[in-house]
# Entry
Amino acid sequence: MSVNINSVKAYPLFEGSYSVDNSKKFLPFDPAVHRRQDRPASLFIFVQPFLVETSTQLILIDTGLGFNTPAGEPVLHENIRKTGHDPEDVDMVLMSHLHFDHSAGMIRHNDTSTALSFPLAEYVINRQEWEYAYSHPSASYRAEVYDVVQRSGNLRFIEGDGRLNDSISYQVTGGHCKYHQVFKISEGDETIFYGGDVLPEPEQVMRRFKAKYDYDGERSMQLREEFGKQAAHENWLCLFYHAKSHSMGRIKEENASFTFLPQD
Ligand SMILES: [Zn+2]
# Structure
């Protein structure tokens, strides 16, 4: 007889690595082909949205930069197919925030048209982040992307902290940007935690620092510590959007210090 099995599963959908300079443009950067010294004053960023499969739903968490394959298909679609699913099967798209590197993939485009990348999904977005993104145009917020989502009617606004259903909860954290939010997906005895850009890389749990790119660096630092403790205490499987090597894993806390156990 089988007992309670964890049906919840997560897949990283690696979209690529990029260099970013002051222009905030993401240039594909392949360490096998490109040289770091040819990209002065640049940050090197890895991008991976996640697909989470529960017993009843297929959930995409953040949507990447929206780049296409040479064949003109979104990289994200190809990655989803590799997990055995169809992009049309995605039920819900959970957005931590609307910065370009997380949100541009909400839509797909070719030379002549734009459309939702996940036409049957509900796009779950914090209402104040939506308003903030429109009212603060910048290199990070691209209204032309949000317009396509708006006209689709597939938008679901949430505010504050709460639950979407029995398995998914959300919490507004601020920190990285004013209305940044994080998600937890639980089923059986498994909890998956997505900390977005408050916790973008596993290494950040291990050291205390304030990041210049944060809206409120002090708050992000506190949150990383709190989430690290909870993740260790409750054995969460954590997902890291900008991880350079291991994008999923668990945190252990011993003698007041954290270690990371990769699980991918
Ligand atoms: Zn980011």
